[in-house]
Each structure stands twice: as C-alpha cells, then as structure tokens.
Amino acid sequence: MADAALLPNYNDLMGSEVLSFDPASETITMRFVAPQCFITGRGGVQGGLVAGFLDEVMGRAHVEATKGAEAPLNLEIAMTLMKLIPEGPLLAKGRVIRRGRRAIFLEGELFDAAGTTLYARATSTAIPTPVPRAV
C-alpha cells in the first residue's frame, strides 16, 4: 500500500485516509471527512465535491493495483447520487473492473461511516499513465 505521506495535499482537505487494499480483487477502502464548508443550502455535500471523493477512491484503486507505477487519466466519469450526503465521516470503496494497456475501467461507491447506506456511485473510463517521479 502506498505511503500515506505520499498522498497529494488535496487529500488533507477531503480528510482522506486509506484503510485497506485487497490486491486479489484490486479493491481499496478509504475514509473521507466531508467538512461543513462542503455543505450546500440543501443540506448535503456539493455534487462536484462528491465526484471528487469518488474520483479519488477509483483512482487510488488503480494506483495501488500497479504498486504506484501508474495513475489513471480520466476520459469519462459517470456518477449517480442516491441521497444527500451529510457532513462528517464517509466510507468509500473503489475497484479496478478491467485494466488494459490503453484503457482502464473503474468503479466507486460512497457510503455512510458504517458502510451500510449507499450515498453515491460512479464509474470511470481512464487511460493508464506513468506516475511522474520526484526529481
């Protein structure tokens, strides 16, 4: 699993934490925290920020599956919101559905902190790209 210190800075804003990665199923489990500043007048997390949580968990699944050698470059993301997402902790699962040389297919789900209520799900089609190394 990638070193948490290597997670990009935006993960601080999202309260990201990698909980586990299963290499056999290429599935990652992450925790996020939706701060109050993410909440709209309707009382739920703003939709673009929900997409950010899902994008991160799907992308991180591919990064972990390639042991940090590749990251996905999204061509398309489709998202379905099932209910308003409240402030506070969230649980997310991301998985690699299929990985080819030219395209990868990813899936993500966002749940309440207990992992029992599904709030949103997404799929992504992406291009596998090498992760740039720090000089």
TrEMBL record:
Q: InterPro entries recorded for this chain?
A: HotDog_dom_sf (IPR029069)
**From what organism does this protein derive?**
Novosphingobium kunmingense
Q: What is this protein called?
A: Acyl-coenzyme A thioesterase PaaI-like protein
